[in-house]
Design goal:
Elements (H helix, E strand, L loop, with lengths): L1 H33 L38 H4 L7 H9 L1 H4 L13 H12 L9
Helix pairs in contact: 1-5, 3-5
Protein name: Cytochrome c family protein
Pfam family, one: Cytochrom_C
Keywords: Electron transport, Heme, Iron, Metal-binding, Signal, Transport
């Protein structure tokens, strides 16, 4: 009985380790994907608006809401709250999701890459600190 319990705990421990490792790998892959964004956006402590707004605290934020950034009328009027599904749709083709947006980006079409980028972005709170 002890051998079965030990095996179960070992299996559970490995599953937890694998899930944690997979998550870290996703964030790491998302950070590499972030390189496609960093020419126009910043994230993290001290992030500033560039060609595009900073992306701290993106998820849960309303479109057109970053103070000090000059949004297009289309973005201001989009009435979207960013969540994972909306971001995934947007990042595939920004101009299809928000016609008239100033964002000029070909998009990221790969769902795995979008999920990885989302995991990376979700680390950063409104203050730019990693959670």
């Amino acid at each position: 009985m002890k051998a079965i319990a030990s095996a179960a705990l070992l299996t559970l421990g490995f599953a937890t380790f694998a899930a944690t490792t997979a998550s870290a790998q996703d964030i790491s892959a998302g950070e590499r994907s972030w390189n496609k964004c960093r020419a126009c956006h910043q994230i993290g402590e001290g992030a500033k608006n560039l060609v595009g707004p900073h992306l701290n605290g993106l998820f849960g934020r309303h479109t057109g809401a970053v103070e000090g950034y000059s949004y297009s009328a289309a973005n201001k009027g989009a009435d979207i709250t960013w969540d994972e599904a909306v971001f995934a749709e947007y990042i595939k083709d920004p101009r299809a999701k928000i016609p008239g947006t100033k964002m000029i980006f070909a998009g990221i079409k790969n769902d795995k890459e979008i999920a990885d980028l989302t995991a990376f972005l979700k680390q950063f709170g409104k203050d730019g600190k990693k959670s």
